[in-house]
Design a protein that fits this description.
Helix content of chain B: under 10%
CATH class of the largest domain in chain B: Mainly Beta
Shape of chain B: globular
Strand content of chain A: 35-45%
CATH superfamily of the largest domain in chain B: TonB-dependent receptor, beta-barrel domain
Radius of gyration of chain A: 25 Å
Number of helices of chain B: 5
Number of domains of chain A: 2
Structural class of chain B: mainly beta
Number of strands of chain A: 18
Largest interface: A-B, 64 and 66 residues
Radius of gyration of chain B: 28 Å
Strand content of chain B: over 45%
Largest sheet of chain A: 8 strands, mixed
CATH topology of the largest domain in chain B: Maltoporin, Chain A
Order of helices and strands of chain A: HEEEEEEEEEEEEEHEEEEHE
Helix content of chain A: 10-25%
Number of helices of chain A: 3
Oligomer: heterodimer
Number of domains of chain B: 2
Mean pLDDT of chain A: 86
């Protein structure tokens, strides 16, 4: 028993000496307050640009909004000057919407901070014409018949496209759309898809770049005599949007001993945050 | 200068060639400098201790110098081709060499180069009283150790996986035993080593960093010699001698094993902790005649860690269950090689080497359940195995030929078949109904690559004191989907200044076709390898050095070097984490980029004598730039320590007592720590790291001291067995030398409080050892 104690004590000792920690001075880091600019916009709603300040690492974690900045979204010769909304604490312009296949520049001029800038290339709208519901496409793992939805996705060539899929079913008793679980039938598509913690189902067009792809989803079965109603929402994400969502998924606040911390993507010059957009296509199967 | 060469080539030339042997043990002496003092021409013995010096007919004063041996001078009358073997006497216990004529600084064309024999490192104690070659080399300027106590070598801005580390001509992977506390090299078997921090001659290649070429003993031709050591980490038994009465067949062998686990009895069968390592070397050499040598060797090193737990219980229904849980972690190196070397004629030598080198890591988890109830005995099993490996099959040829009095021609080829298994996961299960399930993932990433290289070196010697080693490698790497063909020029020049000094310049390029998917902090046993392909390009470096080497006293030399190094195709983690069974997963987790490293080094070396050691200072600046890391901005390399001051001293007080001291000061290495906190697009608090490696850890300062006492030194005793014991204290100044940092967030009185923590390992670590020599 003594030998065992010696052995375990030695192992514990070795473990301890390899994991000693000591406080490091926080003051050695160049802790600067930076302008934080966030906007994830689409082509259907007016974009909201949130402008706040970051908090020093040894600060009080306060992230005050910056109400006295000037925020512009520029496309060619058109400039949209956004106004600060004191209720929602963001910058927006009700009449302004991001247009598909259009490039935009963002400028945020806040007193006392360097000019924060970024750029965005809105992806083009995706054509989903031909998307259909099929009442029975086979049986599932449990031996029950299942239905399916064939999304006919005409993937634009030349450029890389990044998609986010959302699937809704119509609840007739509540008369509203309900988000349904989304499962791809094709194993290759299912393997290539990324599902993140926010419930987003993301898919790059690696497997079908530039071609028309039929992406089949599992759907409820057994609508004989009834009239099922589904909605498919496909967001064509700008690459920064896609990688931003991925970076949030992979975010590791502290690298620890053997690994670098995984940072969140930022594309704001002279600041931090994200300026990215998507074009949404909605297809209702009635 | 070429005119001078041309004139001298036309003189009447005869070849003086042969081998240089250790007079005491009969071992070959590699790296001995054979100099014709009259013409000032010189050559080094190669790995077979073969030399060939073309001289004009007449009388010649030949001088032999070699690390650890007494200098010899002799007059030879040479009128025709002569085959002459030399026998060198090892230095006495106090290292006195009355004839030391300071030849190396003047004649050695290799800059940023360190070589030595076992005697150089055997008294250098490191952590846990081990003598380990990489730990000795970590004292050199331009070489960083990485994580404290480990055997990593980060040479002039390169990663540990960029070094060519060889054991008897075959590459060896990984940091070695006990996670790198002990390297793969058993110091008791080392015959000699060469280490290049700078540009290596063209006979070395395949990696884009430093070169460590270690040769093991072949065997003592006089008698059977052995050592037994016992220290806190392991015991080590080494033997070397001859196997037949004619002393033509020699052998050396060594065994190291951890001993702590052997103390534990297995009385408690319900829990078992596994933590052990071993390695085994065996080398057999047959010398049918003085000109031929055939060697075969094997090395196997294995680490095994894990836990086995067994639980037995019976529920209220009388159902008896036995659960057995096993978690294991194992990695091993295997090397096997064979070589044939022959002196074909007085001016030509050939060597052919073939072998394999394999590194394999595996991790397994299993749960076995046995239930004995009214249904009888039922069994179920669940097991997951993860493993990765790299296997190299190697064939090498090396030829050396003397041409005229002034030139030496080396050429050869190297063919390596790499087999990469970056990560495979096997899942198997068996349920109590007898249904089995087998799944395997990651096999799709297995790949093979063929690396072929042709090299040539032309070494010119001039009576004006210039030596030029001009060479090149034609390197091809046939990876998945793409073949890379690159030319690697190598130029090493030395110009004698006065009678003793040497001015050195070098320029060269090297390529590396394989990449280790390693951690930013250091190499871990589980880090797999992948080959270059159409998805991932090879690493390449260019380096140039300028040095001035001069002796300041007999046996004391100062080496100064300036260097600049460019890297391309470097790989670095980008922070993305994916399963390592996904197709080409490394293309997602690693980015490729460029880097530069430059610095200035000065080193004072005294290899032998009652007081020996080295003292050095190195300034270095190593940085990297990746398109998708740090927003494309340049950042310092993780082991960019700007200043390094190192001193190491061995003092032989008497035949009984030897003291050793070492001191290291280094700038702190940079790590990534957040500078502020901000809100992401979804309103979550996230860290702003601003820049990678933006925080420099405190300076590293360590002082070690120890001694070794001979109980019965051979000079006092006729005992067949000599005994020694020693004590060593690592980090006697008890400083927390940090190598990593992290941020911690806590809540205190409703307020968020953050702190930076530094990680460190060893503070004031005393150890003792016992040694037998027979």
């Amino acid at each position: 028993m003594k030998k065992r104690r010696l052995f375990f004590s030695t192992i514990i000792f070795l473990g301890l000496v390899t994991s000693c920690t000591k406080k490091l001075p926080l003051g050695n880091i160049n802790s600067q307050i930076r302008l934080t600019v966030n906007m994830l916009g689409d082509n259907l709603q007016s974009p909201n640009v949130y402008v706040t300040l970051s908090s020093p690492i040894n600060g009080t974690d306060s992230f005050p909004p910056v109400p006295n900045a000037k925020a512009y979204i520029i496309s060619g010769t058109d400039t949209a000057k956004l106004a600060y909304d004191i209720f929602f604490k963001h910058y927006s312009l009700g009449t302004f919407k991001l247009q598909p296949s259009t490039d935009y520049d963002l400028i945020v001029d806040a007193p006392g901070y360097p000019l924060a800038t970024s750029t965005l290339s809105m992806p083009q709208i995706i054509d989903l014409t031909g998307t259909v519901f099929k009442d029975s496409i086979g049986i599932d793992n449990q031996g029950f018949p299942v239905g399916g939805v064939d999304i006919v996705l005409k993937d634009p060539g030349v450029v890389r496209n990044f998609y986010r899929f959302t699937f809704f079913t119509w609840n007739t008793s509540l008369s509203e759309w309900e988000e349904a679980s989304l499962d791809f039938v094709d194993a290759d598509i299912a393997n290539a898809a990324q599902r993140n913690q926010n419930g987003n189902v993301l898919l790059k067009d690696d497997l079908f770049n530039g071609s028309t792809q039929i992406i089949r989803l599992y759907a409820p079965f057994g609508f004989a005599g009834q009239n099922p109603k589904f909605k498919i929402l496909v967001d064509n994400l700008e690459s920064n949007y896609y990688y931003y969502l991925q970076s949030i998924e992979n975010y590791e606040p502290s690298g620890g001993i053997f690994q670098e911390p995984a940072q969140i993507l930022t594309n704001i010059n002279n600041g931090v945050g994200i300026f990215a957009g998507s074009t949404q296509t909605e297809f209702i199967i009635n | 200068m070429l005119c001078v060469f041309a004139l001298e080539v036309n003189a009447q030339v005869v070849a003086l060639s042969g081998h240089v042997w250790d007079a005491a043990s009969g071992e070959v002496v590699k790296g001995a400098l054979v100099t014709d003092s009259m013409s000032a021409l010189s050559t080094f013995t190669n790995s077979s201790a073969y030399y060939s010096l073309a001289v004009g007919s007449g009388k010649h004063e030949i001088t032999l110098t070699a690390d650890g041996y007494k200098t010899q001078k002799m007059l030879l009358k040479v009128y025709r081709a002569v085959e002459k073997d030399f026998y060198m006497e090892p230095l006495d216990w106090d290292g006195t060499d009355t004839l030391d004529v300071l030849y190396h600084a003047r004649f050695d064309y290799r800059s940023s180069h360190t070589s030595g024999r076992q005697s150089l490192i055997k008294e250098y104690q490191s952590i846990a009283s081990n003598q380990d070659l990489p730990k000795y080399l970590q004292n050199l300027p331009g070489v960083q150790m990485g994580v404290d106590g480990m055997a990593g070598l980060y040479v002039r801005g390169g990663n540990a996986d960029q070094n060519l580390q060889m054991m008897d001509g075959l590459p060896v992977y990984g940091l070695g035993r006990a996670f790198g506390f002990l390297s793969n090299y058993n110091h008791g078997l080392i015959r000699d080593f060469e280490f290049y921090r700078g540009v290596a001659p063209a006979r070395y290649g395949g990696r884009s960093g430093g070169v460590l070429d270690v040769s093991y003993k072949e065997g003592n031709t006089k008698t059977l010699k052995g050592n037994f050591e016992f220290n806190p980490l392991c015991f080590n038994l080494t033997l070397d001698g001859f196997l037949d009465p004619s002393k033509k067949t020699l052998m050396s062998m060594g065994v190291r094993r951890s001993w702590l686990d052997l103390l534990v009895s297995s009385s408690n069968q319900n829990q078992e902790l596994i933590a052990n390592f071993h390695d085994l070397n065996l080398k057999i050499t047959h010398r049918p005649d003085a000109k031929t040598s055939i060697s075969a060797w094997v090395y196997n090193g294995r680490d095994k860690y894990g836990v086995n737990l067994t639980e037995q219980y019976t529920d209220s229904f009388g159902s008896a269950t036995i659960d057995e849980f096993k978690l294991g972690y194992q990695y091993q190196n295997t090397l096997a090689g064979i070589s044939w070397a022959k002196m074909l004629n007085s001016s030509t030598q050939a060597k052919i080497t073939a072998g394999l080198s394999r590194y394999k890591f595996s991790n397994s988890l299993s749960l076995d359940r046995e239930v004995n109830d009214t249904n009888g005995l039922q069994k179920a099993r669940f097991k997951i195995d993860l493993f990765n490996s790299i296997t190299d099959y190697i064939v090498k040829t090396d030829f050396q030929k003397t041409i005229g009095t002034l030139s030496l021609f080396r050429f050869g080829s190297e063919h390596v078949m790499h087999q990469f298994v970056p990560g495979v996961e096997k899942l198997s299960s068996l349920n109590n109904s007898g249904q089995t399930r087998e799944e395997e993932a990651g096999k799709i990433n297995n790949q093979a690559a063929l690396e072929n290289t042709l090299y040539t070196e032309l070494e010119f010697h001039s009576s004006t004191g210039a030596t030029i080693n001009l060479g090149g490698r034609l390197w091809t790497f046939m990876g998945k989907g793409k073949t890379f063909v690159r030319l690697e020029p190598r130029l090493l020049i030395s110009q004698a200044v006065g009678q003793t000094d040497g001015l050195k310049f070098s320029l060269g390029s090297s390529n590396q076709g394989m990449h280790q998917i390693s951690s930013v902090t250091g190499t871990l046993p589980q880090n797999g390898w992948v080959g270059s392909s159409d998805q991932f390009k090879p690493m390449r470096n260019w380096q140039t050095t300028l040095g001035y080497y001069f002796p300041v006293a007999p046996g004391v030399e100062i080496n100064t070097d300036l260097y600049y190094k460019w890297f391309d195709g470097l790989s670095e983690q980008n922070g993305v984490q994916v399963e390592n069974t996904r197709t080409d997963f490394w293309t997602l987790v690693l980015e490729q980029g460029k880097g530069t490293s430059y610095g200035a080094e000065i080193m004072l070396v005294k290899k032998y004598g009652r007081v020996s050691g080295l003292a050095s200072y190195g300034y270095s600046n190593s940085s990297r730039v990746f398109e998708n890391i740090n927003f494309g901005k340049r950042f310092p390399f993780r082991w960019d320590r700007r200043h390094k001051l190192s001193a190491q001293m061995i003092y032989k007080h008497s035949k009984k007592m030897t003291y050793n001291f070492s001191f290291v000061f280094m700038s702190g290495n940079p790590v990534s720590l957040p500078s502020s906190v901000y809100l992401d697009a979804f309103g979550n608090k996230v860290f702003d790291y601003a820049e990678r490696n933006n925080y420099r850890l405190p300076n590293y300062v360590r002082f070690d001291a120890g001694f070794e006492r001979a109980v019965n030194p051979v000079q006092y005793s006729m005992d067949a067995v000599q005994q020694f014991w020693g004590v060593h204290i690592y980090n006697i100044n008890a400083r927390a030398n940090m190598y990593a940092g992290e941020v911690l967030t806590n809540m205190s009185s409703g307020q968020t409080v953050r702190a930076f923590n530094g990680r460190y390992s060893f503070v004031f670590l005393p150890s003792a050892y016992y040694k037998l020599k027979f």
